[in-house]
């Protein structure tokens, strides 16, 4: 089995990220985007995350980009500054090989190191594989909204999963 390296993103990764992500744009409800994303737009997104000093991790297997995970600000208001939203995408040919878990653990470790408190994941439902991945690395369901996205001629629900990086508050 080829070795997989988890590393920080670089702008050159945008070329390989676009087709990896566009697979999900065209074939999945995992993203609510409906039009393909060009490499130049991926590069812009990478720059935006880097400018906010948040991590963007990539997996490289046998020299090829095989997945990525990153964090963005949850909301812009100052009181949200210790909360982020996470995103993970795995190359369709590499799904189910533990890559998502490795990427997520690397991302969560960096977020902890940066002193962040909580990470939110928004999961389009149903998506048993994504739910399982998030729960495996410590996320727990915290809410949901019905019929908030429309793709492939149907309404789609979203669920919110949350992972505390520091001690969780008492209920």
Structure write-up:
By secondary structure, the protein is of the alpha+beta class. 30% of the residues lie in helices and 35% in strands. It has four helices and seven strands. The protein has helices at 14-27, 39-51, 99-113, 128-136, and strands spanning 4-8, 56-61, 64-73, 83-90, 118-125, 140-151, 154-164. Strands 1-2-3-4-5-7-6 form a seven-stranded mixed sheet, sandwiched between helices.
User: What coarse outline follows from CA principal-axis ratios?
Assistant: globular
Structural class comes to alpha+beta
Largest sheet: 7 strands, mixed
- E-strand count: 7
What is the H/E order? EHHEEEHEHEE
- How far is it from the N-terminal to the C-terminal residue, by CA? 45 Å
Mean pLDDT comes to 95
Q: Tell me the radius of gyration.
A: 16 Å
Quote the beta fraction. 35-45%
Number of helices: 4
Regions with little confidence, pLDDT below 50 for 5+ residues = none
Helical content band: 25-40%
With strands numbered from the N-terminus, the spatial order across the biggest sheet is 1-2-3-4-5-7-6
